[in-house]
Design goal:
The chain is built from 1 helix and 33 strands. The chain has 428 residues and is mainly beta. It has a single domain, classed as YVTN repeat-like/Quinoprotein amine dehydrogenase (Methylamine Dehydrogenase, Chain H), CATH 2.130.10.10. The longest helix has 13 residues. 3% of the residues lie in helices and 50% in strands.
Length: 428
Amino acid sequence: MPLWRRPQLLSLPRHQPARSLALAGIAAVFLVAATGCHRSGFPVYPSNYREFAYVTNGGSDTVSVIDLVNLRSDRVVQAGQQPTGVAASPTRNEVYIVNSGRGNSNGSLSILNTESNHILTTIPLHRQPYFVSVDAEGKRAYVANSGSNNISVIDLDRRREIAVAGAGEQPGLAVISPDSRSLVATNRGSGSISIYAVSDDATQPLRLRTVLEGCPGATDAVILPDSSKAFIACSSGHQVMAIQLATTASAATAPATITPDAATPARPAAKDLLLDLLDVGKTPVHLAMKPDGGEIFVSNFDGNSISEIDTSANEVGGTYMIGEHPVRGIVSADNSTLWVANFGADSVSAYSIDDGKVTDNVRTGSAPDALALSAAGNLLLAVDSRSGDVAVIRTQARSDYQSRSLFTLLPAGVQPNAIVVKAFLVKK
């Protein structure tokens, strides 16, 4: 059973998230420096290059660290109770791990140093946190506490929670916009969206700006690269909510509540506006956005399909069959290929965006869920939630007559939940 359907758990997004400019720069360094390849098509890395994948194991209270340079397990790190969401800093050699806790116990946020692969500190949170979002400067983290109906603001310099903002019922995740001016929280229990104005003011870093209703089972959320729009998966139905985010600093001096009947056409706005409710397949659980922000691909779990959304027109271009119970998607850096984890088929599908068709199906372990791409994009990592391993897949065919293939399976822990990749250069 996927995480978004388990009691007290929601789907783990990606987030984290699109690779940062710093990560792209690092990838460019070793790609330009490479003078050849090894292991039949793998990049040659500088001697001081490091790249790790971090997998949270909710059932064993650990994080598995995978060395992506040497393609082997590096170590297992003890985390807090039931680690779930994980995100990498865009500016520091750090990874942030959400420990959801068990029963009525509070959760926490662990900070892991990626150079030593040891936990530096753990910050107390509230009940049932699941995901973490980090701003573009790497200074603040935001965590939705589903069991406490609030949002924690974490100062990553001072290593502590500096504020708590109220949310709707069972907030699943809180996503910070690329410009760090808006925070969007999905409230699964109340079927609503809370939008906050973000400030550098430590005394009031979050101010509730707007509440949007009418999104049953609000689960996943993505924000366009220019911070102009947000899209929300309404997982208890068959729709995706399109929202225009406020474009001025003075937007919405008082919280507003907007229902679907009050939808307004897209235009530059001083307030957050509900643009549309878009019909997709049954039970949309995850949104995969192209790096250029032009399209979003919806994984429709009970529809066995994906839906394609044009983000400029706020229109669904089509819905296409993909595999049994698609649960997660990720788009390649060149915007050409959508990878989809088919939870019920023990496979990952490669969908050619330009051609509009599935080009490959690769077998994985049991119940693939979370996905991540290596910094160079030559490997896809699929977390197999039932078999407790990570499928490492070549993203390029080795010849004209060979398809993409499973390269290896690497062990993870019990009930692996989420994955993030961190690449960096160490000082010589």
